[in-house]
Amino acid sequence: MTNPTPNHPDETTPVLSLQDVGYAYTKGGKRVLDHVSHDFLPGRVHAITGPSGAGKTTLLSLISGLAVPTAGRVLHNGDDLAGKDRYAYRSRDIGVIFQSFNLLPGLTVAENIILSMDASGKRFERPKQDIARDLLAQVHLPAEYANERILHLSGGEQQRVAIARALSYDPPVIVADEPTGNLDIATQEDIMAIFRSLAHEQNRCVIIVTHSPEVAAASDEVFELAPLRRRKA
């Protein structure tokens, strides 16, 4: 299921490709994923959907370089991730937004963002504090939030900080795990507007794992690992 994106044609080179990917947690064990193939393009928001147990979290781990497939290949710009420095890949090429945010509560907002910049090993032409404040504007937070402690923020505000942190070293791929799961409708719509801006205006590849039909509908493409099941009353 694909929604057209007029400013970004479909005929582009995939930044990530799944080629007949399979995964099992134990050798010879039951596969969580089997024969999965898909391309992820820059300039688009991709939603990965499916019921619990379909392998969405496992697929996210493979795309993020946290695990390697037990069958098939995950390609990044045509290169097999299994043969690359996956720490460098996670620190520079892909920004991951975790479902639980994984922000450090003892640090300020700016310190959380700058920590990821430091971990990337990249050189920055501007002071990191200035970059952090600019990133807050991108995720619709006031500049004065830079000095706030994480524990003082709402769930929606922490989600925005997590997005800013993922953007801090300018990765071409952004991956988010259920980024709107505990948010109200208005905040969910604003978060999705941020993701669409990252894809359509900055030409990033945005990949979102979600159970939300609203998030799927707001995405450019939906990759369904298995048919969505209706929740029992």
UniProtKB/TrEMBL annotation:
InterPro entries from the entry?
AAA+_ATPase, ABC_transporter-like_ATP-bd, ABC_transporter-like_CS, ABC_transpr_LolD-like, MacB-like_ATP-bd, P-loop_NTPase
Which positions fall inside the ABC transporter domain? Answer: 16-233
Keywords for the protein's UniProt record, in alphabetical order: ATP-binding, Nucleotide-binding, Transport
User: What CDD domains does UniProt report for this protein, alphabetically?
Assistant: ABC_MJ0796_LolCDE_FtsE
Q: Name one GO molecular function term.
A: transmembrane transporter activity
- GO cellular component assignments: plasma membrane
Q: Which PANTHER family match?
A: IMPORT ATP-BINDING PROTEIN, LIPOPROTEIN-RELEASING SYSTEM ATP-BINDING PROTEIN LOLD
Query: What does the sequence similarity comment in the record state about its family?
Result: Belongs to the ABC transporter superfamily.
* Protein name listed in UniProt: ABC transporter, ATP-binding protein
State the taxonomy lineage: Bacteria, Bacillati, Actinomycetota, Actinomycetes, Bifidobacteriales
